[in-house]
Specification:
The protein is α/β, with parallel strands linked by helices. It has a single domain (4-260), classed as Rossmann fold, CATH 3.40.50.720. The chain has helices at 13-24, 39-45, 58-71, 100-137, 141-145, 162-165, 171-191, 213-220, 232-243, and strands at residues 4-7, 28-33, 49-52, 77-80, 153-158, 195-202, 251-254. Helix 2 (39-45) links the parallel strand 2 (28-33) and strand 3 (49-52). Helix 4 (100-137) packs parallel to helix 7. The longest helix is centred in the middle third of the chain and has 38 residues, at 100-137. It binds NADPH dihydro-nicotinamide-adenine-dinucleotide phosphate and the ligand Nc1nc2c(c(=O)[nH]1)N=C([C@H](O)[C@@H](O)CO)CN2. Ligand LV4SOB2L binds next to loops. Keywords: NADP, One-carbon metabolism, Oxidoreductase. InterPro entries: NAD(P)-bd_dom_sf (IPR036291), Sc_DH/Rdtase_CS (IPR020904), SDR_fam (IPR002347). Catalyzes the reduction of dihydromonapterin to tetrahydromonapterin. Also has lower activity with dihydrofolate. It catalyses: 7,8-dihydromonapterin + NADPH + H(+) = 5,6,7,8-tetrahydromonapterin + NADP(+); (6S)-5,6,7,8-tetrahydrofolate + NADP(+) = 7,8-dihydrofolate + NADPH + H(+).
């Protein structure tokens, strides 16, 4: 029987790469997708269970959780990958009163970032915790009889290098990722010793379509290693965390030495 992993937001880019690779490795992968990109058909053909959800809409999230529970009694891991990289709105220089409309517009950005990163993870972890606990308590006979180490489950949050240093143009995004890192610490304390809770904090991994050469050069120059490593780096780190029996409550940086790059 395959162990089941859940990866959110895996219909493109990092999540898609990891979902296909982990399915190929022998896991049964369940993913969430918001937009049915063409890659969803590829995932389904590979045997991945693909469930549609807007993780910031509570009704959609609730239906998604129920659908996961209908298809799966035990979860080996939850990987919170879904994300939106949204810029803050331009500051409006005015000596006049701040209008309600301005506040509402800024609040829309902040709510979007906190809902997809921090609230979705908080709610999914709480709702699906029984499935992680079912996995770790389901010892097969050999484990009951022998000194075999007990089963462990994992929660892995994708955060960001900027969660610790901030971002001038993505302040709401960075703050929401920092909240997820703090959630990592709380859950690691609550769920030890059988469920490990960690975060992966990349800096530049892969560019977006439309990133021009000037942007790409500037972004690459921010780290010591000067590369955009791609999704392989995240897959390797997920596998490292899944096989570990002694890492929890940690944020693993994947940043090419960016923290040492002097301005
Ligand atoms: N790419 C990079 O260089 C870096 C990435 N990271 C982090 O790594 C992870 C993967 O990055 P990347 O692959 O670029 O991510 P993407 O920007 O490609 O987003 C991943 C997925 O999240 C989904 N998503 C967004 N909002 C919602 C929502 N409301 N409900 C459900 N799903 C939603 C998107 O769905 P849809 O397709 O419908 O929009 C998208 O497919 C992210 O957490 C990111 O913050 C951190 C640092 C650098
Ligand atoms: N959800 C996303 N988060 C982030 C992305 C992205 O494309 N989607 N990209 C970055 C950048 O690569 C940044 O690290 C360097 O410009 C950050 N987060």
């Amino acid at each position: 029987m395959r162990d089941t992993l859940l990866i959110t937001g895996a219909a493109q880019r990092v999540g898609l790469f990891c979902a296909l690779a982990l399915q190929q490795q022998g896991y049964q992968v369940i993913i969430s997708y918001r937009t049915r990109h063409a890659a969803v058909a590829e995932l389904e053909a590979a045997g991945v269970m693909c469930l549609q959800a807007d993780l910031t809409d509570l009704s959609s999230l609730s239906s998604f959780i129920d659908e996961v529970k209908r298809h799966c009694l035990k979860l080996r891991a939850i990987i919170h990958n879904a994300s939106a990289w949204q810029k803050d709105l331009p500051l409006i220089a005015t000596d006049g009163l701040t209008t309600l409309a301005q506040l509402q517009q800024d609040a829309t950005v902040f709510d979007a970032m906190s809902h997809i990163h921090a609230r979705a993870a908080y709610l999914l972890n709480r709702a699906l915790l029984p499935l992680l606990q079912a996995y770790v308590s389901d010892l097969d006979q050999s484990q009951q009889d022998s000194e075999m180490p007990c089963k462990m489950a994992d929660i892995i949050h994708l955060t960001d290098f900027v969660a610790t240093v901030g971002s001038e143009k993505h302040q709401a995004y960075a703050a929401s990722k920092a909240a997820v890192e703090n959630l990592t610490f709380s859950l690691a304390r609550q769920l030890a010793p059988t469920i490990k809770v960690n975060a992966i904090a990349p800096a530049l991994l892969m560019f977006n379509q439309g990133d021009d050469d000037s942007y790409r050069q500037k972004a690459l120059a921010k780290s010591l290693l000067g590369v955009a490593p791609g999704a392989d780096e995240v897959l390797a780190t997920i596998n490292y965390l899944l096989q570990s029996r002694y890492i929890t409550g940690r944020v693993l940086p994947l940043d090419g030495g960016r923290q040492l790059r002097l301005p």
